[in-house]
Amino acid sequence: MGNFRQWWATNIDLQYQKYLYDTFSKNYTWNIKSPVNLSPAYWDNPYFTRYQNYQNDKRERFAGNFSLSYDLSKKINILGRVGIDGYSMILEERRAVGSVPAFFSSNIIEQPSGYAVTNLRFTETNYDLIATYKDNITDDLSIQALAGANINAQSSYSNAQTTTGGLYIPGLYTISNSVASPARPIITDTSKYIYGVFIQASLGYQNTYYLEGTFRRDQSTALPKANNAYYYPSVSASVVFSNLLKQQWLSFGKLRAAYAEVGSDTAADQLRNRFIVQTSFGNNPVYSYNTTLRNADLLPQKLKNFELGTNMQFFKNRVGIDLSWFRNIAFDQILPLPVSLSTGSGAKIQNTRELTTKGIELSLNLTPLKFKDFSWDLLLNWSNPKTRVTALREGIENITIGALQGGISINASLNEDYGSIWGSDYVYDPNGNKIVGRNGAYLHTDDSNHNFGSFQPDFIAGLNNSFTYKNFNLSFQIDWKKGGKIFSLDQYYGSGTGLYPETVGLNDLGNPVRNTLANGGGVILPGVMQDPNNPGHYIPNTIRLDRSISSQYLGTDPPTAAFIYDASFIKLRQVSVSYTFNKNFLKNSGIQGLTVGFTGSNLWIIHKNLPYSDPEAGISSGSIQGYQSGVMPSTRNFAFNLKVNF
Questions:
Q1: What integer pLDDT is reported at residue 183 of this predicted model?
Q2: Who's near 230: CB < 8 A, 6+ residues apart?
Q3: Residues 82-110: pLDDT tens digits?
């Protein structure tokens, strides 16, 4: 998809590409090296890629658990259980002879062809022993408490092998069919154990006042011995004030407050640096230093959370509201942070300082209409969480989370919103007009440190409407995301290579913009240029920009700011229709309930600001968000539902 959205020549007939592959079974394609060399210069025939450069995997998974519960008395219960979840997986990668050379598997140089196989195994086992105590101390006071221990054992194994220098015999996919000596296998075998103990106690008084506290201590082998223990204290309290007010208009009302701390470790093998095996030099083994430095002084990650909220229902649950305010403080997060390349590595596993997330969550339920055979129910959810970088290690003002194609980076800057997108900007005159250079293209800044905003939205919301008439139900949900920034690498490349509609058409002279300048082509960009007769002053631009060939070739690309968009959208997320049959209809059938339905999801993007793509689509996730490259087209999904109860 990156090819189609960024580089693909729009006059290429895909059916002819299919004909070439079906007829010759070779990598004949549209971008040949020369009239006498039919090898592809840049891109493989897509059908050659589909049928010869493919990957496959096989995964076998096992999950199971065993538990034994015994009541020592009416008040005390002992529970022991063991749960296991694991899988084994084989991944195979193929790159056929005749392909365009490319990076393949773990090879550090481009390969003309190759084969790689990876064997993976992962197992997680939990052992729990829990004692529970329940009692009504008085008619008004109840208590529930538990104490227990947990052992979490994780083991991971990987064995990756690849050919080197290509395949000696075309079509034979084995490691031994390597042109050069194959690289030595890269084997990792790690394990991690977490030993935990915990207690919990809950008090309830008159079914109105509730108090709960918990405490847990974990000790992880993934952390250094001096810092391998972390704790989880929490306390929460609530009052069901509707029991005190006892008003007819108030169906239910509760106030709640909670405070909690959570600790966590990191992945195995983050403490000691190591060497990684590479392709042998003759009979001599070769090793490289790890590209990310380990850290033997890591601290456990921690999160503090505080929340205040209320839940109220009015007029026999016809109107309800659930409102909460929260603040999360995450500190000592473990991340690979950039370090000087003089260390021999580009990053080091380190503890960052502090991220603070604040926000409000609101849920509103409403039944505007309710009759004997008809009802209309409405549910609204709204939230506006924002995460800011409130502290970093001494001497650090910014952490580059990711440096990406297109000249942009995703950053965590001190006292700024987390996930800010940096890149190059236009150059402006004192009046804020974009300045055009001597070649007719916009000037842009020499640096790429201009902050265009965070990928975090201002808020997200969802509105669900449900209409019920007798046995029929119709519901639909609308989702709304407001704000946030997104960079489109597809637009960045595709606008320069002429894939998008705005790169064609007629210019102010009535000529095709893709004509050469000598033939009246090109465009005059809106903006200003230097006044040749008055240095330091600017006049409206009159320089024509050449659009006859790629801007990447001409060096006339605009700055990255031109391809950063508002990621807002409004979507018709889902529509559902169902019918529930009467029990009389099911009489004597042995069926207690029968419902049939039809559901459609992701049906319509009502509004968006990002052209040619769904703002939710992309390869980005986790900390790397707000970035799109070669995204797949969005799909509408339809499903038929049948629910039978016996």
A1: 80
A2: 217, 218, 220, 263, 264, 265, 300, 302
A3: 999 999 999 999 999 999 999 888 887 89
The per-residue pLDDT for 216 is: 96
Distance from CA of residue 306 to its chain's centroid?
26
CB-based contacts of 609, cutoff 8 Å, min separation 6: 565, 566, 567, 568, 569, 615
C-alpha to C-alpha distance for 129 and 329, rounded to whole angstroms: 31
Do residues 524 and 34 lie in contact, with contact meaning Cβ atoms separated by under 8 Å? no
**Alpha carbon distance, N-terminus to C-terminus of the chain:** 47
SS3 630: coil
Asked whether 514 and 549 are in contact (CB, 8 A), the reply is no
What is residue 184's predicted lDDT score, i.e. its pLDDT? 83
CB 619 within 8 A of CB 631: yes
Report the amino acid identity of residue 427: V
Question: Which stretches does DSSP call E strand in 424-497?
Answer: 450-454, 459-469, 472-482, 485-488
> Which residue do the tokens 């970093």 mark?
392
> What is residue 292's three-state secondary structure?
strand
The pTM assigned to this predicted structure is 0.88
**Identity of the residue numbered 494:** G
Residue/partner pairs of 598-601 with CB below 8 Å, 24 or more apart: 598/638, 598/639, 598/640, 598/641, 599/574, 599/575, 599/638, 599/639, 599/640, 599/641, 600/574, 600/575, 600/576, 600/636, 600/637, 600/638, 600/639, 601/573, 601/574, 601/636, 601/637, 601/638, 601/639
Cβ neighbours of residue 515 under 8 Å, at least 6 residues apart?
A: 521, 522, 548
pLDDT tens-digit readout, 152-181: 999 999 999 999 999 999 999 999 999 998
The answer to whether residues 474 and 498 touch, using CB atoms and an 8 Å cutoff, is no
* CB 180 within 8 Å of CB 174: no
Tell me the pLDDT tens digit for each residue of 252-290: 999 999 999 999 999 999 999 888 777 677 777 788 888
Distance CA 506, CA 523 (A): 9
Count how many Cα atoms sit within 13 Å of the Cα of residue 409 in the half-sphere of its side chain: 17
Q: Which helix (H) or strand (E) holds 4?
A: helix 2-6
Residue closest to 134 by CA, chosen among 71, 192, 82: 71
Residue 14, amino acid: L
Would you state the structure tokens that stand for residue 76, as one six-digit string? 């005390």
pLDDT for the residue numbered 620: 58
Structure tokens at 42: 């840049």
Average pLDDT (394-406) is: 87
What type of residue sits at position 416? E
- Is residue 588's pLDDT more than 80? no
Most distant pair of Cα atoms in the chain: their distance: 99
Does the structure show a pLDDT above 60 at 619?
no
